[in-house]
């Protein structure tokens, strides 16, 4: 049995745990990249879309890390005056 590189939209939605409309919105906003996260399976714009569940899973991990680290990074940018001494 070979593992499919790209899955159908229905399979991707089930495996990723996100809704179809959210998946399409990520594609439309270009958060998900053509050729990495999705492709036109037939090579035609009107063809079915194939999704790389593995690549999208990694994107989910990366985005989660970015979201969690954002306040920490923002806090580290705040200037303090502790070096001025007392």
Structure description:
The protein has about 90 residues and is mostly helical. The chain is about 50% helix and about 5% strand. The chain is built from three helices and two strands. A two-stranded antiparallel ribbon has the order 1-2. A hairpin with an 8-residue loop joins strand 1 and strand 2. The longest helix has 24 residues. The protein is elongated and about 65 Å long.
Short account of what is shown:
The chain has 86 residues and is mainly alpha-helical.
Q: What descriptive keywords fit this protein?
A:
86 residues
Outline the secondary-structure elements.
Elements: H1 9-16, H2 20-28, E1 38-40, E2 49-51, H3 53-76
Antiparallel strand pairs: 1-2
Query: How far apart, in Å, are the first and last alpha carbons?
Result: 70 Å
pLDDT below 50 for ≥5 consecutive residues: which ranges?
none
Rg measurement, Å: 19 Å
Order of helices and strands: HHEEH
Oligomerization category of the chains in this entry: single chain
Computed structural class:
mainly alpha
Helix content: 40-55%
Determine the strand fraction and express it as a percent band: 5-15%
Biggest sheet overview: 2 strands, antiparallel
